[in-house]
TrEMBL record:
<keyword id="KW-0808">Transferase</keyword>
<dbReference type="GO" id="GO:0009086">
    <property type="term" value="P:methionine biosynthetic process"/>
</dbReference>
<feature type="domain" description="Cobalamin-independent methionine synthase MetE C-terminal/archaeal">
    <location>
        <begin position="5"/>
        <end position="331"/>
    </location>
</feature>
<dbReference type="InterPro" id="IPR038071">
    <property type="entry name" value="UROD/MetE-like_sf"/>
</dbReference>
<keyword id="KW-0479">Metal-binding</keyword>
<protein>
    <submittedName>
        <fullName>5-methyltetrahydropteroyltriglutamate--homocysteine methyltransferase</fullName>
    </submittedName>
</protein>
<dbReference type="Pfam" id="PF01717">
    <property type="entry name" value="Meth_synt_2"/>
</dbReference>
<keyword id="KW-0489">Methyltransferase</keyword>
<dbReference type="GO" id="GO:0008270">
    <property type="term" value="F:zinc ion binding"/>
</dbReference>
<dbReference type="InterPro" id="IPR002629">
    <property type="entry name" value="Met_Synth_C/arc"/>
</dbReference>
<dbReference type="GO" id="GO:0003871">
    <property type="term" value="F:5-methyltetrahydropteroyltriglutamate-homocysteine S-methyltransferase activity"/>
</dbReference>
<dbReference type="GO" id="GO:0032259">
    <property type="term" value="P:methylation"/>
</dbReference>
<keyword id="KW-0862">Zinc</keyword>
<dbReference type="InterPro" id="IPR016456">
    <property type="entry name" value="Met_Synthase_cat"/>
</dbReference>
């Protein structure tokens, strides 16, 4: 990446109201058939345009073609029954009705590759594509077949690796795996979670990232955060092993979060996507606030490895709020870039 402090988002962006109901997760589509296919493409174009206008350096599809960051990928796999749902506690935090794994999981055809090709044709900027991580996929399902979270995660890692290689082949520059579950199941992360992640990126000759956050700004998450005390030290449990792993970039939450910034020293040497935008509030950050978060992070991350970003996806926010926040992100990064270049 030639630009210093290249900006990007952690993933999702709001969808237009003609495509899906705004400001909710798992929002049902408002179109069907060919209209839905065209609508998703149009929304992707609008989302890309907004990323250009707000000044982002690394762009994405804004996840306009998916209903949810985990379930949309799983829907395309064999071995999972979406009719037969069970209620399970996900992220050890809240109940959700989830599909059941009833047999061997496999991917018969690519899931996002056509969408990525479409995005590639619209832009010359670097593209980042998000996929769910193996552990977070396992944690969003009821497993009635493998009866082992580790085994199922390994199978998903193999599938994700196939998809990731095809995404790279159509021109994706950075492939990101979303692993909010890494912030909850520390023992499993260290035993097999990181191993599965490394299986998912095996042989991939593009940059790779893992996104670990405290979730969208939904009530179940904000309630959970209230129980975490004055210092959020969860990253401390998984950073040492991640620092040793093959993953290139670690995407994490910083602004307005109680994560002690010095924990970044545990991943020294890695590129870091620093969350300088809070996704759990409608208050739009000022560029100076963004700059302050970045300056703090620069105490622990080399300037050429710092990627200003958002704490998590912005899908549940109003579009105007999201636009304001992205503008602040780009302007804040520009302030610090000038300081570094002075
Ligand atoms: Zn997130």
């Amino acid at each position: 990446m030639k630009t210093l402090l290249p900006t990007s988002t952690a993933g999702s962006l709001p969808k237009p109201s003609w495509l899906a109901q705004p400001e909710v997760l798992w929002s049902p589509w408002k179109l069907e058939g060919q209209q839905l296919i065209d609508g998703k493409h149009d929304a992707l174009r609008v989302s890309l345009q907004e990323q250009y206008q707000t000044g982002l350096d690394i762009v994405s599809d804004g996840e306009q073609t998916r209903q949810h960051f985990v379930t949309t990928f799983i829907e395309h796999l064999d071995g999972v029954d979406f009719e037969n749902r069970r209620t399970v506690k996900i992220r050890d935090r809240y109940d959700a009705s989830v599909p059941t794994v009833y047999g061997p999981v496999s991917r018969q055809k690519p899931v996002f590759v056509e969408d990525a090709k479409f995005l590639r044709a619209q832009t010359n900027k670097p593209i980042k594509w998000a996929l769910p991580g193996p552990m977070t996929m396992v944690d969003t399902l009821f497993d009635d077949h493998y009866k082992s979270r580790e085994k199922l995660a390994w199978e998903f890692a193999v599938i994700l690796n196939q998809e990731a290689k095809e995404l790279k082949a159509v021109g994706v520059d950075i492939i990101q795996f979303d692993e909010p579950a890494f912030n909850v199941f520390f023992e499993e992360v260290n035993e097999w979670g990181i191993k599965c992640l490394e299986r998912a990126i095996e042989g991939l000759n593009c940059e790779t990232a893992v996104h670990i956050c405290y979730g969208y700004g939904i009530k179940a998450n904000t309630d959970w955060k209230k129980t975490l005390g004055s210092e959020w030290r969860q990253y401390e449990e998984v950073f040492p092993k991640l620092q040793q792993s093959n993953i290139d970039i670690i995407s994490l939450e910083c602004h307005n979060s109680r994560v002690p910034i010095e924990l970044l020293s545990l991943i020294r040497g890695k590129k870091v996507m620093v969350g300088a935008i809070d996704v759990a509030t409608n208050t739009i950050e000022t560029p100076e606030e963004v700059a302050n978060t970045l300056r703090e992070a620069l105490r622990y991350v080399d300037a050429d490895k710092l990627y200003p970003s958002t704490n998590c996806g912005l899908a549940p926010l109003a579009r105007e709020v999201a636009r304001g926040k992205l503008t602040a992100l780009a302007k804040g990064a520009e302030i610090v870039r000038k300081e570094l270049e002075a």
